[in-house]
Write a structure and sequence with these properties.
With 209 residues, this protein is of the alpha+beta class. The protein is built from six helices and six strands, in the order H-H-E-E-E-H-H-E-E-H-H-E. Strands 1-2 form a two-stranded antiparallel ribbon. Strands 3-6 form a two-stranded antiparallel ribbon.
Length: 209
């Protein structure tokens, strides 16, 4: 019953947000198109419920030429476009994921969906984060996000799986507003973005745009 209610709230909330944010979505889409060549949306395979792969949607924030810059994405990375820098800072690049929520690939609240190539690094404990739908925001995202290590992020995600409930989801959604506008935790303290990457992952794989 709780899962059904959560799905109803996800569907209602995402559709309402798509309607309310339609002008913002159109402005951002136009800005991305005018700022640099390439598609408006960025598509990438991610791990969903039970490890099932789905295609996540984001506004494109990187230049069409992927050869610029290094393997690890950083706050000052030359691949990030001028518009993309603003979108990343305020998480606006994540808004197209409302469509993922409508389609049932994601929830408004849940663990961050990670790249399939990281699955072999998961321990049985890590895989528990796949027991619920991934979310646009989540417990670890509002508790340090990119400033946390892989182990800290997994621990926070598993804690959410063990304590998931509608009241907790509401609490996370409210905290997300503060995080977006005040905390700036999309990047680690050194300016890198290594979110969702196991500590054991080779450096040349550490790129999660």
């Amino acid at each position: 019953m709780r899962r059904l209610l959560k799905r109803c709230l996800d569907l209602t909330g995402s559709l309402l947000l798509l309607v309310l944010l339609a002008p913002v979505l159109l402005i951002v889409a136009l800005a991305v198109r005018l700022d640099s060549r390439g598609p408006i949306l960025f598509r990438q395979a991610r791990l969903g419920l039970g490890g099932k792969v789905f295609t996540i949607l984001k506004f494109r924030t990187l230049a069409a030429d992927p050869c610029r810059g290094g393997a690890t994405l950083r706050r000052d990375d030359p691949r990030i476009t001028a518009v993309g820098r603003v979108l990343r800072e305020y998480r606006l690049d994540e808004l197209p994921q409302l469509l993922n929520v409508v389609l049932g690939h994601m929830s408004l609240v849940g663990p961050r969906p990670l790249l399939p190539r990281f699955l072999p690094y998961y321990t049985p404990h890590d895989r528990r984060r796949l027991d619920v739908l991934p979310g646009m925001t989540g417990w670890q995202q509002v508790n340090g996000a990119g400033r946390n290590t892989w182990r800290e992020r997994v621990a926070l995600d598993v804690w959410y799986v063990d304590h998931a409930g509608l009241l907790l989801d509401l609490r996370i959604l409210l905290r997300t507003v503060r995080v977006v506008f005040l905390d700036r935790t999309a990047y680690a303290p050194d300016g890198s973005q290594i979110s969702g990457i196991p500590d054991a992952t080779p450096l040349d794989e550490r790129n999660d745009p």
